[in-house]
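Two quick folds needed for the group meeting slides. Do the first one here.
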Amino acid sequence: MVPFHCNHNRRNGVFHGCLRPFLHLLGDELKMLGRIYYHTPGSSKPGSLPPNVSAAVNGVALVGTLAGQLFFGWLGDKLGRKKVYGITLMLMCVCSIASGLSFGSNPKMVMSTLCFFRFWLGFGIGGDYPLSATIMSEYSNKKTRGGFIAAVFAMQGFGILGGGVFAIILSSIFDAKFKAPSYEVDPIGSTVPEADYVWRIILMVGAVPAILTYYWRTKMPETARYTALVAKNANQAAMDMSKVLQMEIQSEQDKVDKVVEGSNNSFGLFSKEFLRRYGKALLGTTSTWFLLDIAYYSQNLFQKDIFSAIGWIPAAKKMNAIHEVYTIARAQTLIALCSTVPGYWFTVFLIDKMGRFKIQLLGFSMMTIFMFALAFPYNHWIQPGNIGFVVMYSLTFFFANFGPNATTFVVPAEIFPARLRSTCHGISAASGKLGEIVGAFGFLYLAQNQDPTKADAGYPAGIGVKNALIVLGVINFLGTLCTLLVPESKGKSLEEMSGENEEQQPNVGEV
């Protein structure tokens, strides 16, 4: 008897996770787009995207991702993981390149084409969530499964670093080649025509890891669990694994046929039986992912306050357009290197020892503590040169990633039956993306200064950063409570967690 998993396929699968952040490289470039396309003559500040344009550029990608998570999650259970994942990769490659080639003779046309391709880019990225997690869970054994699924997600850290380093290198080259004064010295000359190439190249390079992953993905067979338990073809599953492992594997088709005849596990997603068996678990995975993403992505809104307060990023008017990209990318890469990436890999190494539940509970609890610790003495933290603000801010990111940001991705790929696994993961991920939309847009307005004259251009007065941080602390506390709904899957097989009949069906941990 031979294990159902394969180290070669798991190593290739781990690489999948670096795609999402690499393809979403537009955070720093939004500021450059404002300088290039929305300069206001005579203004004391560089041009910035109007709120409605900024919301459109960010919003279409998020909506596309949410739709892709639901659609491709469902399709992955209908057509198979391998086939559908190949579709999502090709969609990401094409749309990543097309986003950088956004054309037009005026700002409105450029932004319209950019938004169009970013929607479909997001749609493809959305499919990556349920499919990459499900593929990895079905290729892994119960002892190391959590670490391998978490590693898929942890590769986002390398994607963030890779994207940040590339932005730093590219902007450095352009800044050295095309010298430009700061905005306060020469408002027009501070944005050289060549700056338009910077954001386009950064977007298009995101296609590179997708192309590489597509090649590796074509070398992997369909997961044997899907072929045997969903497609009901144990013979094909045995043949696939024989090729991969280069040894003869005996099929157990007769046992699969008996299971099909006597199985009562044919209920649908919207049935009372599903609600009875998995309703609580699905509520747990969707609610925790939703609350996490509100808090996690809202934290990004405060980066400019933090970096500016300690002097890492000068005022925009003191920089030219390309140098601003360099400065912001350098600061964000340093945060990722010191807190985000270590947090991810702490989860990878400890999740199969500590368990999913403990790590998620710890992460939410510590995020709550640090958020309140940032909020109540907020005026103390933002004193010029106070490095403590960065330390506290970094710790919230560390415990988000050594915590629910990783576990909310892992658990939905483990606790649902094979024929609904990708669908349920897609629903959970879409709930998280809805939380990101709430965080990215709701808190963008909510965190504005209470004094209307000090709010960002085009935005109404809000409740201020301090009060917004208190709200986020409460949201993290609610995430801690909702974690109690999530089952622990440490050391259990997928079939044991999902309740699929292990007595009648062949041991799906073996062929």
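Then this one, please, same format:
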Amino acid sequence: MEEKLIQRLESAVARLESLSVGSQSRGIDLDAMAASTDPSIIAFEDLLTEYVGKVSSIAAKIGGQVQDITNVLSESFSVQKELLIKIKQTKKPDMVGLAEFLKPLNEKLMKAISMTEGRRSDFFNHLKSVAESLTALAWIAYVGKDMGMSMPIAHVEESWQAAEFYNNKVLVEYRNKDANHVEWARALKELYIPGLRDYVKSHYPLGPVWSATGAAVSVSVSAPPKAASKPSGPAPPPPPPASLFTSESSQPSSSRPKVGMAAVFQEIGSKPVTAGLRKVTDDMKTKNRSDRAGFVSAGEKEVRASAASVSKVAPPKFELQMGRKWVVENQIGKKDLLIEKCDSKQTVYIFGCKDSVLQIKGKVNNITVDKCTKMGVVFTDVVAACEIVNCNSVEVQCQGTAPTISVDNSAGCQLYLSKDSLEASITTAKSSEINVLVPGPDNDLVEHALPQQYIHSFEDGQFLTTPVSHSGG
């Protein structure tokens, strides 16, 4: 890497020397050439070649909207490179000048966001992954702690956390369908973590370094028409355009158009209370209608009961929330659920699943199985505990280690322990039919039933509790 950098620097110096002769007659900007050969710019070019190039090459295999949004991503990084070169020749601007300076980058980010709007496509998660991740490029707008923005390294990480929600959906959706999409999602993550994050950490941990002697940012100002009776003074600068790098907090709330529920209440308040109401005649009243007999038939009861039972079924979920909690909910008949590349700080919450199997690869902090029926869970290692609550007919297998396993208010629970997890502490409460299977002398599983009945006897001023043993005969 160092030899490659030295070669590129030597080549740049040779170019500068050759261009220095007659540069005035040809109008060559040597300052721009020097800025483009700065080590930080060269490192950004390496970032483009290694990471952006990888994402683009995979997107070309997929084509369609995935390639289109990836092209916007590539254009955005190229624009940031040009801005980094200009920063080395430009004085630090004010907020209005900064918005004008970053306008080319903002246009690319707005273009990516516009591609996610309208009718949802089959590649919505791809589009959102890129659109959300591109906000990481706003680290270049950091000019100090007072601007209400995280420092550059933290901003890149936070931006990717927002994008990772959709990126994980791509991984889950195409895990067993198309390897190109999986590879694309992984390459996109590598572009930001560690790619862009490590670049910012190495070269701009405190934000971009503006030139002390460079040119000022020119802000285009359109003057209002002059009045005939009064002399006009200098026109005030217009407000900056809508941008990811500025906020709308400076705009008075009374002048902003109402959106969301505020618009609904405003529309309701602008109309008379009785507008649109029809007059109720005598034949429309319930007491005078022949089709209302005052009782509910058995058929109506069944329809209402079935409608109520259907409405209680919530939509299934399989997602990583805030990078910390895997949520697996309402999965019915899914035998191939899989969570890969877990983090020891992450937890897994399984709720309302039926007739399904979930495999968890890697070490996680905690696993909770709640209100599941005929559910199978296979995990490798858990740091804290595996909890089984309000379940019926579940099977849980530990392939690694688990310090604690608790079973509460459950029936028909089968626990499979490996040799490394035999020291696990198993706690049960209000549960029945709990069997633990452990490896025997010949690696055959040996089943042990945990007692669910106890005998309490009063001796020597206190109660003694002993489990009821069952013979295997």
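Slide caption for protein two: Residues 435 and 449 are 4 Å apart (CA to CA).
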